[in-house]
Design brief:
The protein is α+β, with helices and mostly antiparallel strands and about 210 residues long. The chain has one domain. A five-stranded antiparallel beta sheet has the order 1-2-3-4-5. Helix 1 crosses helix 3 and helix 3 packs antiparallel against helix 4. The longest helix has 30 residues.
């Protein structure tokens, strides 16, 4: 029976580094939501009664061709827009929160277990897991603890706060990407890195580990 390769065992310090990065990303997600969403609420007509009504504070939000209230950041293609998402990506699954939210929490536990067992040489794989876990934690926090100004009593859990809004222009046509947040961005990038790491796994495993070669 061959002894396990020590170069494949995860180092303890990497566990702490992974935990620190996850905490930093979750903190960035929650801080951005807590900063941007109230700022947008104060400028939205539907929430005027919560903030003393008119006149609305400056700068005023601009309505696009679809009637969305937005605050342009870079031209018309990047803006901040208030959106509460009771579902998953693109708002899907809002009617199945009782399955979606516990599943999201279970995914966090599974991702934590995978991070603890990630081999030393699979750095890209580990980075992908960290990003996806941070995103899942940020959105799970909203589901479990965030209470919007107007509560939807038909939903058992709170909504996820989204505010990054993007339009892509192709000639005289526009394509509106689903509004998202920092947690969603972490998940999207993490999934892409996870797919890439799957193809690069043999090369990653053959890469010398500086911890064992130094």
């Amino acid at each position: 029976m061959t002894a396990p390769d020590p170069s494949q065992k995860p180092a303890i310090w990497r566990h702490f580094l992974a935990l620190f990065v996850v905490a930093a990303l979750v903190g960035a997600d929650l801080y951005s939501k807590a900063s941007v969403m109230p700022w947008l609420e104060a400028r939205m007509v539907r929430y005027a009664d919560f903030h003393g009504g008119y006149p609305m504070p400056e700068p005023e939000l601009q309505r696009d061709v679809h009637g969305h209230e937005r605050h342009p950041v870079i031209g018309n293609w990047l803006a901040m827009m208030y959106n509460l998402n009771h579902g998953a990506a693109f708002g899907m699954g809002a009617a199945f929160q009782k399955v979606l939210v516990p599943g999201r929490c279970m995914a966090v536990l599974v991702l934590g277990w995978l991070i603890l067992r990630a081999p030393r040489r699979r750095r890209l794989y580990l980075s992908a897991l960290i990003l996806v876990m941070a995103g899942a934690l940020g959105n799970s926090y909203d589901n479990l603890f965030y209470e919007p100004l107007i509560v939807d009593l038909d939903k058992p859990f709170g909504p996820v706060r989204d505010f990054i809004d993007v339009y892509f222009e192709f000639g005289d046509k526009q394509w509106h990407f689903a509004t998202f947040n920092v947690a969603d961005a972490c998940i999207s990038v993490g999934v892409v890195l996870l797919l890439i790491s799957t193809f690069l796994a043999p090369k990653e495993e053959q890469t010398p580990d500086p911890e064992t070669t130094s």
